[in-house]
Amino acid sequence: MLKDSERWGPQLELGDPQIDKEHQQITGQLERLRSLITGEATIETLIGSLAPLFEQLTAHFVAEESLFETQGYPEVGQHKKEHQEYLDQARMTLESLNQNDLGSFQSQLVQLSDRWLQEHILVEDKLAISFINAQESP
Ligand SMILES: [Fe+2]
Ligand SMILES: [Fe+2]
Q: From CA 32, how far away is CA 73, in angstroms rounded?
């Protein structure tokens, strides 16, 4: 069972409807993957769920980087590096599955989900969106 802090909820909304929607979709995918591990999912099923997640993550990061750049967010360079780290971790997660290593897959996935929620959404994007909102308000 996932804890509330590991699930989507209003505490994760940052006030940008498009970004919030994508965060919710990706968080939902991560939750689904985590619940698949506890079931009897085959490696093929897990790979089938992880591949689209990887694509969603990539698209989400590209969209965010373009928005943050357009808005003149000064930390965009650092933010891009952080995005790259999540993609690297997602790639390692997929790699564990390809190597049939479920133990490593599970720990990579838990790490990725935790960082996605606690760092990506609640720290890194929150800072960027607060910056943008401060620019926009008179
Ligand atoms: Fe994000
Ligand atoms: Fe981000």
A: 33
51-67: pLDDT as tens digits: 899 999 999 999 999 99
Cα–Cα dist 90/16, whole Å:
25
Is 114 inside a domain boundary? yes
Structural domain contains residue 16? no
pTM for the model: 0.92
Indicate the number of domains in the chain.
1
- For residue 23, the CA-to-ligand 2 centroid distance in Å is 10
Please indicate, yes or no, if residue 129 is contained in any of the structural domains.
yes
CA of 34 relative to ligand 1 center, distance in Å: 20
Ligand nearest to the CA of 127: 2
CA of 132 to the centre of ligand 1 (A): 14
Residue-wise pLDDT for 79-127, tens only, equals 999 999 999 999 999 999 999 999 999 999 999 999 999 999 999 999 9
| Centre of ligand 1 from the C-alpha of residue 127, in Å | 11
**Is residue 134 in a domain?**
yes
Q: Tokens 């590209």 sit at which residue?
A: 62
The parent domain of residue 117 ranges over 43-138
